[in-house]
Description:
CATH class of the largest domain: Mainly Alpha
CATH superfamily of the largest domain: Ribosome-recycling factor
Order of helices and strands: HEEEEHEEHH
Number of domains: 2
Strand content: 5-15%
CATH topology of the largest domain: Topoisomerase I, Chain A, domain 4
Largest sheet: 4 strands, antiparallel
Number of helices: 4
Low-confidence stretches: none
Radius of gyration: 22 Å
Distance between the termini: 51 Å
Shape: elongated
Amino acid sequence: MTEELGMIIDDVSVQMKKAISHLEAELSKIRAGKATPQVVDGIYVDYYGNPTPLNQVANVTVADARTISIQPWEKNMLQAIERAIIASNIGLNPQNDGNYIRLYLPPLTEERRKEFAKRAFGEGEQAKVAVRSIRRDSIEQIKKLQKDGLSEDAAKDGETAVQGVTDKFIALVDQHCKDKEKEIMTV
Length: 187
């Protein structure tokens, strides 16, 4: 295999690992009945006119298995944080006591669990689309190399290697989704 072909295959692996990392981050945001600080990741608070991540304006801690406690570093940020949580549409109502904001996670109903599992599989599908897109782009690069003088056998070997890496990452996406479904459906 040529050096360029080896670089393409290495690049495919790196890009697909990034797609898996993104999937893991998205799956961690889907709550499975227990409180984690990741539930509020992605919520931005209006901090003096600038959208700022919630964890940069307050301490986010888990008080117990069903409660997330948010303590702002500035008391005047309580209202802004509360508005941001409501606007984020994460399905939790903030309880403001003047010092802290608490988010109580209600026990999940069977219907809600199925909805979260469906959302997890939706994230998995998006990851698969990303992996397949990376495969398509790399195979196009291999075909360009073939037009520039790469032998047909080497191009076929390269495409086979790319497909092997793709299959491995698709199986990894499926495994992540099954694990998350198991976590969500466990009562």
